[in-house]
Amino acid sequence: MSSAVVSTSAAQGRPFAFEVEDEAEVCPQPGGGELFGEGRPPQRVVPGALVSGTFSGAFKDARLASVTPASRLAARAAPEMVGSGIAAMDALTGGLPRGCLTEICGPASSGRTTLLLAALAAATGRGECCVVVDASDALDPQSAADAGVALERLLWVRCGESSPQKGLEQMLRATDLLLESGGFGLIALDFGDLPPQTARHIPLTTWFRFRRAVEHTPTVLLAVEGQSIAGSCSSLLIKLGRQKHRVKEFANPVAPAHAQLLTEVEITAELVQSRLERKPVGSAEITFASRTAWAG
């Protein structure tokens, strides 16, 4: 038994190695001459012989030479991280990554708006222009100003004046235009008050398109939601929850006995997913406080 290499007109120049006897005869050519060409006699495979030819199609040697082997691919550079406006959050995640999608999810009163306004205040404080694409017209400009957001650098896109489904369609179209135009330091998509069943109608291909559009740009794409909906397209997934709250009792005897004033909410943040490191990170959790404006 010996080894021989032979090529045919079906893949010229592409050698195929197989075991043959000392002398083996290839089957006679088909009637249409598909293998060896019209009028060409059957060929014998000679041990140790190499029949070469010009290779055609998608696997030309020149094209193969231009393909970089996986072993030579350079590691992708880590994205630039910017502050979220909350020191404890930056200690947990390293900040918010530019050119990536970050998801912040949690139920109502879990600190979503606190983190959103802190990120906007930090970005506008750096002199960047920001956008809030609001699915339910929930942003309060006065609260944003009290949180330190420079309103002259904030674009508010209101999509909540119609039905939730139409508002979602407007929101996705506006996001496409904003990502295409560029020039924003932070684009926040606020799905917080959108019904979960409506938010889940966003196809994964839309999130993939957003991720590709923001890639290699200095923009932070931030999605604020009740539940995670972007799947594997997000680079960071942070889950928020309310742990406890503090209230102030009224000492005035005229006030009702049940009257209380909320002064602070203690919020937990869990890093559920991070694709910014080559090795997966374990779930980590922090706690930080959100104080009301009247608490001083």
What does this structure look like?
This protein has 296 residues and is an alpha/beta fold. It folds into 2 domains: 68 residues, no CATH class; 215 residues, Rossmann fold. The chain is 22% helix and 28% strand. It has an 8-stranded mixed sheet, sandwiched between helices. Helix 5 packs parallel to helix 7.
Main attributes of the structure:
single chain; globular; eight-stranded mixed sheet; disordered N terminus; Rossmann fold; 7 helices; 296 residues; alpha/beta
- Low-confidence region ranges: 2-29, 32-37, 48-55
CATH topology of the largest domain: Rossmann fold
Tell me the strand percentage band.
25-35%
Helix content: 10-25%
**Annotated CATH homologous superfamily of the largest domain:** P-loop containing nucleotide triphosphate hydrolases
The CATH architecture of the largest domain can be given as 3-Layer(aba) Sandwich
Number of separate helices: 7
**Element-level helix/strand string:** EEEEHEHEEHEHEHEHHEEEE
The spatial strand order of the largest sheet comes to 9-8-10-11-7-12-13-14
Shape from CA axes? Answer: globular
Counted beta strands:
14
Q: Could you report the average pLDDT, rounded to the nearest whole number?
A: 78
Amino- and carboxy-terminal Cα gap? 91 Å
Work out the count of structural domains: 2
Quaternary structure type: single chain
